[in-house]
UniProtKB/TrEMBL annotation:
Keywords: Copper, Electron transport, Membrane, Metal-binding, Transmembrane, Transmembrane helix, Transport
GO CC terms, sorted: membrane
Cross-referenced InterPro entries: BlueCu_1 (IPR000923), BlueCu_1_BS (IPR028871), Cupredoxin (IPR008972), Plastocyanin (IPR002387), TAT_signal (IPR006311)
Organism superkingdom: Archaea
Name by which UniProt lists this protein: Plastocyanin
Cofactor section: Cu(2+)
Organism: Halobacterium jilantaiense
């Protein structure tokens, strides 16, 4: 048997098998890496305790996110992405000092406030667009939920099943290719 290439007699060399195994392992590793990357966040905010609320993104009359959970001491930065909006605090807990009422403006306006307490719900609106539902809430709490923001529509178990199905189909196709290419002739007599 020729160790460098496949022989003319239809036999498979050890190097071909090793190459095929390495390719299958690389494909499996790449699939796992892609699935792991889907689990990451959207990159907004930072580890220093700052959160971002977009004001009028994509020309819509909304705050994004409309509901935000923060711990005491977190700075929330409002970033204008659309024109003709403001942030006006309408209802705050007890003796809270947040009395925001920014001017009606557009980009590149930014406004930030550090929510030191007291804990509770801080409601705010955009005055020109409150009638169409442009309102938001910041909830200051010691234990915010783990999954704040948008929830994925596809559960993790379905993602895992899809990755497994794609891996299985790839394996079956690889084995089918291997047998079609290197299956050999069976015209001879078989030993029993």
């Amino acid at each position: 048997m020729n160790s460098e290439n496949d022989g003319d007699d239809g036999q498979v060399s050890r190097r071909s098998v090793i190459r095929a195994g390495a390719a299958a392992a690389a494909a499996t590793a790449a699939t796992g890496t892609a699935a792991a990357q889907e689990e990451g966040g959207d990159g907004e905010g930072s580890s220093s305790g700052e959160k971002i609320v977009k004001v009028g993104p994509n020309g819509q009359n909304i705050f994004d996110p409309a509901e935000l959970y923060v711990t005491p001491g977190t700075t929330v930065r409002f970033v204008w992405e659309g024109s003709g909006h403001n942030v006006h605090a309408t209802e705050v807990p007890g003796d809270a000092e947040w009395s925001a009422k920014t001017e009606i403006t557009g980009p590149p306006m930014e406004y930030e406030y550090t929510f030191d307490g007291p804990m509770g719900e801080y409601n705010y609106v955009c005055d020109p667009h409150a009638s169409v539902g442009m309102e938001g809430t910041i909830i200051v709490t010691d234990s915010p939920p783990e999954n704040e923001g948008y929830q994925t529509l596809v559960p993790d178990s379905a993602k895992t099943l899809a990755v497994a199905a794609v891996g299985s189909m790839t394996s079956v196709l690889g084995i089918a290719y291997f047998f079609m290419k290197y299956g050999g002739d069976y015209d001879g007599e078989f030993e029993e």
